[in-house]
Amino acid sequence: MVQQKKPEVWQRGPIDNMPALLQPVAHALLQAREEVNEMVEGFPDGKLWQKPAGVASTGFHLQHLTGVLDRLFTYAKGESLNEEQLKALSVEGEALEGKKRATELVELFNAQVDKAINQLSVTSEQSLTEVRMVGRAKIPSTVIGLLFHAAEHTMRHVGQLYVTIKVIKDSVKTGL
């Protein structure tokens, strides 16, 4: 029997307790989580830091997905990055102590998506056009700009992760 694939998250209707204007951001983040969890299933942990054709590794993408959500949602709250966030940024792409399996990095991403969804649910639609400063350079953006960028940047890396994982899994199957 062929298993029917679920519709994409945005096709399942509004997310409960989510402001209407932030539904697309929430849909994209929840879709990213589903896709990442599915594609990492069965991934060979010994290949986590492999860079096929010199592209970013699976481990980097998984770390970056988590980190970029954390950073952009911090800026959306009007806060600066703390020392822990700056340290995490500086080691993206390096194996984390005690996090040597893809599933462990996916768990961190899942937790960050949950945190982002919670933040979205309490974000006032009236705040969306408020100016927020980004980074040490204090580049001006807005709450909606940061939240939308978080969603699109996440999906961009999900696409890159998909290709990287496919290349690695195919090379494992063929013995290359």
3D architecture notes:
The protein is mainly alpha-helical and 176 residues long. The protein has a single domain, classed as Four Helix Bundle (Hemerythrin (Met), subunit A). 55% of the residues lie in helices and 5% in strands. The chain contains five helices and two strands, in the order ααααββα. A two-stranded antiparallel ribbon has the order 1-2. A hairpin with a 4-residue loop joins strand 1 and strand 2. The chain is globular. The model has no long low-confidence stretch (mean pLDDT 92).
Biggest β-sheet description: 2 strands, antiparallel
Instruction: Give the DSSP E fraction (strand runs of 2 or more residues).
Output: under 5%
CATH topology: Four Helix Bundle (Hemerythrin (Met), subunit A)
* Multimerization status: single chain
CATH superfamily heading? dinb family like domain
Question: Count the strands?
Answer: 2
* CATH architecture call: Up-down Bundle
Total helical elements: 5
Mean model confidence by pLDDT? 92
CATH class: Mainly Alpha
Number of domains: 1
* Order of strands, widest sheet: 1-2
Structural class: mainly alpha
Question: Cα-atom Rg, whole angstroms?
Answer: 17 Å
Termini Cα gap: 33 Å
Q: Please mark out the parts with pLDDT under 50 across 5 or more consecutive residues, or reply none.
A: none
Shape: globular
Helix content estimate: 55-70%
Element pattern in H and E: HHHHEEH
